[in-house]
Amino acid sequence: MRASLPNRCLLCHQTIGGDGSGLCQDCLQQGCYHQPVCLGCGRGMTLQAKYCGSCQQTQPLPVVAPASYHQGLGSVVADLKYRGELAPLQALCSALVSRIEELEALNIITRPQALLPVPLHASRLRQRGFNQAYVIARALSAALDIPVLDDVVVRTLATRAQAGLDGKARRHNLRGAFMLVQPVPVVRIAIIDDVVTTASTVEEMAALLAWQAPDLQVWCLARAEAPGLLD
Fold first, then answer.
1. 64 domain-assigned
2. Centroid of chain to Cα 16
3. Considering the domain boundaries, does residue 10 fall inside one?
4. Which domain range does residue 208 map to?
5. Distance CA 64, CA 36 (A)
6. pLDDT per residue as tens digits for the range 142-191
7. Which band of pLDDT confidence, cut at 50, 70 and 90, is reported for residue 80?
8. Would you say residue 12 lies in a domain?
9. What is the tally of structural domains in the chain?
């Protein structure tokens, strides 16, 4: 990870002063959603509700994100994960906090009692040097005064990377990857990750948690929804 923070925007490269945020406000705002989106599938909507018509029937795990991975901020989130580029972390988390507060004000979500970052397997943690989900969870915890649970779920299988796999392969890849090792002390939990694509990872975790914590949602920095849903 970089020892010093940049004074230029990572996207447009214009000077942004000495705050080290890594993103100018113009690029951050352009990369965030400019329309209501379904918390189930990421589809664009006319009015903000929890689910679109299709997702109302299935009631999937709700995913709260401030932006689409495909529309501007994907490279920044990927660099955070794979290169340890943490300069834009606070800006991205602030955008997520704003999205959370917007949905709370509309009574679409309820604030959780705890945050649970998606764990990395020990071998992946040694390779990468940090768990990006944990880093995000700590930043959100500081902003929202919500405790982080980091000893409830562990990753027991060193699965192959999810990138490049389709939905079916992702689900198969993650089968049995997590283990619940501590009782869940609360009933409302937000699972924290950097990006949600098919939701296979968070759904596998939710299956472990649901019988003890029935009120589950997902918070992430960006959502990689299926093509065409925001057109």
1. yes
2. 26
3. no
4. 36-223
5. 12
6. 999 999 999 899 988 765 454 554 445 555 556 667 889 999 999 999 99
7. very high
8. no
9. 1
Query: Using an 8 Å Cβ cutoff, are 7 and 73 in contact?
Result: no
Q: For residue 4, is it within any domain?
A: no
Q: List Cβ neighbours of 159 (8 Å cut-off, separation of 6 or more).
A: 121, 173, 174, 177
Are 49 and 36 a contacting pair, CB within 8 Å? yes
* DSSP line for the chain: --SS--SB-TTT--B-TTS--SS-HHHHHHHB-SS-B-TTT--B-SS--SS-HHHHHH-PPPEE-SBBIIIIIHHHHHHHHHH---TTHHHHHHHHHHHHHHHHHTTSS---SEEEEPPPPHHHHHHHSS-HHHHHHHHHHHHHT--B--SSEEE-S-PPP-TT--HHHHHHHHTT-EEE-S----SEEEEEEEEESSSHHHHHHHHHHTTT--EEEEEEEEE-PPTTTT-
Radius of gyration of the chain (CA): 17
Q: How far apart are CA 193 and CA 63, in angstroms?
A: 10
Tokens in use for 227? Answer: 């093509």
Cα 32 versus chain centre, distance: 14
User: Residue 79 maps to which CATH number?
Assistant: 3.40.50
